[in-house]
From TrEMBL:
Keywords: Hydrolase. The lineage of its organism: Bacteria, Bacillati, Actinomycetota, Actinomycetes, Kitasatosporales. The keyword ATP-binding does not apply. Pfam families: Isochorismatase (PF00857). It comes from the Bacteria. It comes from Actinacidiphila acididurans. This is Cysteine hydrolase. Coiled coil: none annotated.
C-alpha cells in the first residue's frame, strides 16, 4: 500500500479561467494524475467551497470577503473542478474553507485514515493554496513534494522564488515529468 497521495488543489473552473497559463498546463497536470492513478497513488481533489450566503466568511478576511455572492457555492458553475483534471469515480474531493487545504476541511482525517505520510502538491496558486498547504503539512510532519510546473501563480517571479528558493527548504521540488518517472 502506498503512503503517498497527489493533491490537486483549486483547479476549479473560475480559478483556471482567471489564471494565466499556457496551453500545456492542464495536459501536463492531467499527466501527473494519470501517473498517480497508474501507480496506485490516491488522487485527492481539493476545492474551495462555501455554503449559500457565505456564512464561513468574515469581513475581516480580505480575500474571501471580496468574493461576489454565490461564488464557490454548490450553485456556482465556476466552483466545478476543471474537466481536464476531473475526479474519477471513487476519488476523494476535499472541500476547504480557507487558503490551506487543511483549514476548514477533513483533509487530515482522510490522510491519517489512508496511512498517507507523503503529499505531492500541485495547483493554483503557488503563493496561495500551495504555499499555505506546504507550510501546514511541514508543521504536521508530512513528507512533501511540489510539482513546480504543476503549479501556477499570477506572478511568475513569485512562483520562481517559491519553487526555487522557499519550497526546497521543506519539500522536494520536481517537474511533472521528473515525478512521473518515479510515480509508478
Amino acid at each position: 500500500m502506498t503512503t503517498t497521495a497527489l493533491l490537486v488543489m483549486d483547479v476549479q473552473q473560475a480559478i483556471v479561467g482567471r489564471a494565466e497559463h499556457g496551453p500545456d498546463y492542464l495536459p501536463r497536470l492531467a499527466r501527473a494524475l494519470d501517473a498517480a492513478r497508474d501507480g496506485g497513488i490516491p488522487v485527492l481533489h481539493v476545492v474551495i467551497g462555501f455554503r449559500a450566503g457565505h456564512p464561513e466568511n468574515s469581513g475581516r478576511n480580505r480575500a474571501f470577503a471580496a468574493l461576489p455572492p454565490g461564488a464557490f457555492t454548490a450553485d456556482d458553475p465556476g466552483a466545478a473542478i476543471h474537466p481536464a483534471v476531473a475526479p474519477r469515480p471513487g476519488e476523494t474531493v476535499i472541500t476547504k474553507k480557507r487558503v490551506s487545504a487543511f483549514t476548514g476541511s477533513d483533509l487530515e482525517v482522510v490522510l491519517r485514515s489512508g496511512g498517507i505520510d507523503h503529499l505531492v502538491l500541485a495547483g493554483i496558486a503557488t503563493s496561495g493554496v500551495v504555499l499555505s498547504t506546504l507550510r501546514q503539512a511541514a508543521d504536521l510532519d508530512y513528507r512533501i513534494t511540489v510539482l513546480a510546473d504543476g503549479c501556477l501563480d499570477p506572478d511568475p517571479e513569485v512562483h520562481r522564488v517559491l519553487t526555487e528558493k522557499v519550497f526546497p527548504r521543506q519539500a522536494e521540488v520536481l517537474t511533472v515529468d521528473e515525478w512521473v518517472k518515479t510515480a509508478g
